[in-house]
TrEMBL record:
Gene3D superfamilies membership: Glycosidases, Golgi alpha-mannosidase II
Reactions mediated catalytically: Hydrolysis of terminal non-reducing alpha-L-arabinofuranoside residues in alpha-L-arabinosides
Protein name: non-reducing end alpha-L-arabinofuranosidase
Any one Gene Ontology molecular-function term assigned to this protein's record: alpha-L-arabinofuranosidase activity
Lineage, broadest ranks: Bacteria, Pseudomonadati, Bacteroidota, Bacteroidia, Marinilabiliales
InterPro entries, per the entry: Alpha-L-AF_C (IPR010720), ASD1_cat (IPR055235), GH (IPR017853), Glyco_hydro_b (IPR013780)
Family: Belongs to the glycosyl hydrolase 51 family.
Length: 497
């Protein structure tokens, strides 16, 4: 037992809400994310509803998927939405130049995506094409989606079988415009974003929440330029940030499953850089937007490993281990911590691509360790963040160290308190004392844990799950404090009343 591992939770000082949109997802026309992942078509033997896999929808509903970003990614700035509407067998094809050079037949388009969101009961987040499209094309897409008036676009929508407007709220104005979205300078993008945004209109009651393309990692100049010259709050309501955790280099990122402790440590260290990034970007946002009108939208994040051996390098198919689960919890804790500004985040990319929740192989499906962290963290959706202070051991590898613990505490609408704790140390369990200031007496309701035998334990087709969500009871409550016995390399949730 040590006072070295102590979390002080201020149960009476909560004022910010952890938006459930922080637990959002991203799905691109890339590899087998859309095709094979969600979309199998109506004639498939795989059980589906209107062409969309039932097993995948059911699994994502279980983790309370709040929103889904689509169609890219880099794909978004080459996508022409009109190619993806109308009778499927008449839709033109295109080459997916970014992802494997495969032929995209456009069988999954606007109507299919919105059907998917309706089955998932989640908010659509659509990223428009600023890079190779025109303001007119973007404007017409929004009109097609959201207008209830009589117009050429609404007539077209009705002819394609949809009478009522969908009322899409979240709208990306280009993706990675500093890179695959057009290689623009910050000022050039700021001007273009203002122009495109002018022509994406509000229809009826629906108010668009426009997300400007924000910085690549630590490009603080990009953030500064957009916040200064991009008309924040007018031309855009949210600004994105992309940061992927790459263990080694972009050329050679490292295996998803065959890694040693040094690589595990490096991954934790690099993922924790998100803290500094959020802090610094938020400082710039606070300077230009002291009233906190603009949200920071981390709409691409997660581990990016080398593809599985033998798979198409352009398909970004990677396995997912306990290491990925730890990366998920650490990042989610950081988004929660900065929830005053972080209003949405989207892990890349839900099914079969990068740090996925789900892997599919024909009619089979695997839930990844990351999936179980998202399932556990449902307790924080739309809950009040309880400010907490952590004092903890370091997890040291050779000469370097990171804090061993990461945490989030929140209070739900029904008054229940949830605390999630991750112990990054792969060797040592930790006895963690949680002092719940502002309460007198608490009782333990339930607990759960995600862990595995090894740092690279993972779930695979045709074998028993190695990592899942299990019951956890190693908690002792004494008045307003509790002791949680955290196993090494684990994520734990404790519910208190
Ligand atoms: O998620 C894969 C790619 O990563 C996206 O298409 C792009 O936006 C980012 O570079």
């Amino acid at each position: 037992a040590t006072a070295q591992n102590k979390i002080v939770v201020n149960t009476d000082l909560g004022k910010e809400t952890i938006s459930k949109d922080i637990y959002g997802h991203f799905s691109e026309h890339l590899g087998h994310c859309i095709y094979g992942g969600y979309w199998v078509g109506e004639d498939s033997n795989i059980p589906n509803t209107n062409g969309i896999r039932n097993d995948v929808v059911e699994a994502l509903k279980e983790i309370g998927i709040p929103n889904l970003r689509w169609p890219g990614g880099c794909f978004a700035d080459e996508y022409h939405w009109m190619d993806g509407i109308g009778p499927r067998d008449e839709r033109p094809t295109m080459i997916n130049t970014h992802w494997g050079g495969v032929t995209e037949d456009n069988s999954f388009g606007t109507h299919e995506f919105l059907e998917l969101c309706s089955q998932l009961d989640c908010e659509p987040v659509i990223c428009g094409n600023l890079g190779s499209g025109t303001p007119q094309e973007m404007s017409q897409w929004v009109e097609y989606l959201n207008s209830g008036n009589v117009s050429p676009m609404t007539d077209l929508r009705k002819a394609n079988g949809r009478e009522e407007p969908w009322g899409v709220k979240y709208w990306g104005v280009g993706n990675e415009s500093w890179g695959c979205g057009g290689n623009m300078t910050a000022q050039f993008y700021a001007d273009n974003m203002r122009r495109f945004s002018t022509f994406t209109k509000n229809y009826g009651e629906n108010r668009l929440y426009k997300v400007a393309c924000g910085p690549n990692v630590d490009d603080y100049n990009w953030m500064e330029t957009l916040m200064k010259n991009g008309n924040p709050g007018g031309s855009f309501q949210g600004i994105s940030l992309h940061y992927y955790t790459v263990c080694h280099t972009w050329r050679q990122k490292g295996s998803a499953t065959q890694f040693d402790e040094k690589e595990y440590f490096t991954t934790m260290d690099k993922t924790l850089f998100m803290d500094e990034l959020l802090r610094n970007h938020i400082t710039i946002m606070d300077k230009y937007d002291p009233r906190n009108r603009v949200g920071l939208i981390v709409d691409e994040w997660g581990n990016w490993h080398d593809v599985e051996p033998g798979t198409n390098p352009g398909f970004l198919y990677q396995q997912n281990t306990l290491r990925d689960a730890m990366v998920a919890s650490v990042n989610l804790d950081l988004f929660n911590k900065y929830c005053r500004r972080v209003k949405m985040a989207n892990i890349a990319q839900t099914v079969n691509v990068l740090q996925a929740m789900i892997l599919t192989q024909d009619g089979e499906m695997v839930k990844t360790p990351s999936y179980y962290v998202f399932k556990m963290y449902k307790v924080h959706h739309d809950a009040t963040l309880l400010p907490s202070d952590v004092t903890c051991d370091n997890y040291t590898y050779e000469e370097e160290s990171v804090p061993a613990l990461s945490t989030t505490a929140s209070k739900a609408a029904d008054g229940k308190i949830h605390i999630t704790i991750s112990n990054l140390d792969p060797h040592n369990s930790k006895e963690v004392l949680c002092e719940m200031r502002g309460t007198e007496k608490l009782s333990f309701v339930t607990g759960s844990i995600v862990t595995g035998d090894k740092i690279n334990s993972y779930n695979d087709f045709g074998k028993k799950e190695e990592v899942s969500l299990k019951e956890f009871k190693d908690v002792k409550v004494n008045g307003n404090s509790l002791t949680v016995k955290m196993p090494a390399k684990s994520v734990v949730m404790v519910e208190l009343n």
